[in-house]
Design goal:
The complex is a heterodimer of chains A (125) and B (112). Chain A has 125 residues and is mostly beta strands. Chain A contains no helices and eleven strands. In chain B, a hairpin with a 2-residue loop joins strand 7 and strand 8. In chain B, the strands form two sheets. In chain B, strands 2, 4, 5, 6, 9, 10 and 11 form a seven-stranded mixed β-sheet that branches. Classes of the chains: A mainly beta (125), B mainly beta (112). At the A-B interface, strand 10 of A face strand 4, strand 5, strand 9 and strand 10 of B.
Chain lengths: 125, 112
């Protein structure tokens, strides 16, 4: 069955970077992308970006452009999320989710049908 | 960006009774291909969100048929015909017609 396994919790100081991994299994990696979504304490989910499993093309939320990098390792079917210049308001649970990312015509379309367990990233001095 | 709103934000329910959640978008979510680019997710306590419905009304794998999704354009509804204790959690609608995909504020469903 489809499974997304994320790396463990992180504690970082303001200004540092964090890199979270998402190991996928149980499906053809090249047929789907992976979206990243974060959820601050007591808040709703917020989409951060998506990366294609087929060719590694990313799409980022505009407010995170320049600080966020998504990458893939097709040999291990793992997706990575790196966030730089961390601030206290980046404290959140970060989720990866399998996401087709495009519709039949190639236009952006998101359907997050399987989710990882979440990774808590705490930013504190 | 498209703004999603939900009502109510809190919904106490009685097991066995029906429940309904409304979601509205600031712009029509009807794509030129005839599909509404709107999904419903449920986040049970302490868990990751899970997909309930996609394209407005298509039930995701494993979702019980007591759940139904309907609507088009800017108005959508999630209904539970008979609430069960396992249905508690926060329900979110999400649009993906325009990037970035945006979620509603959530409707917290709990047992009376």
């Amino acid at each position: 069955q489809v499974h997304l396994l994320q790396s463990g919790p992180e504690v970082k100081k303001p200004g540092a970077s964090v890199k979270v991994s998402c190991k996928t299994s149980g499906y053809n990696f090249g047929n789907y992308g992976v979206s990243w979504v974060r959820q601050a304490p007591g808040e709703g989910p917020v989409w951060m970006g998506w990366i294609s499993g087929k060719n590694g093309t990313p799409r980022y939320a505009q407010n995170l452009e320049g600080r966020l990098t998504l990458t893939t390792d097709t040999s291990t079917t793992t997706v990575y999320m790196e966030l730089r210049s961390l601030r206290s308001d980046d404290t959140a649970v970060y989720y990866c989710a399998r996401d087709v990312g495009v519709d039949g015509s190639g236009s952006p379309y998101n359907q997050l049908d399987n989710w990882g367990q979440g990774t808590l990233v705490t930013v504190s001095s | 960006e498209i703004v999603m709103t939900q009502s109510p934000l809190s919904l106490p329910v009685t097991p066995g009774e029906p429940a309904s959640i409304s979601c509205r978008s600031s712009q029509s979510l009807l794509h030129s291909n005839g599909h509404n680019y709107m999904d419903w997710y449920l986040q049970k306590p302490g868990q990751s969100p899970q997909l309930l419905f996609y394209l407005g009304s298509l039930r995701a794998s494993g979702v019980p048929d007591r759940f139904s999704g309907s609507g088009s354009g800017t108005d959508f509804t999630l209904k539970i015909s008979r609430v069960e204790a396992e249905d508690v959690g926060v329900y979110y609608c999400m649009q993906s017609l325009q990037s970035p995909p945006t979620f509603g504020p959530g409707t917290r469903v709990d047992i009376k």
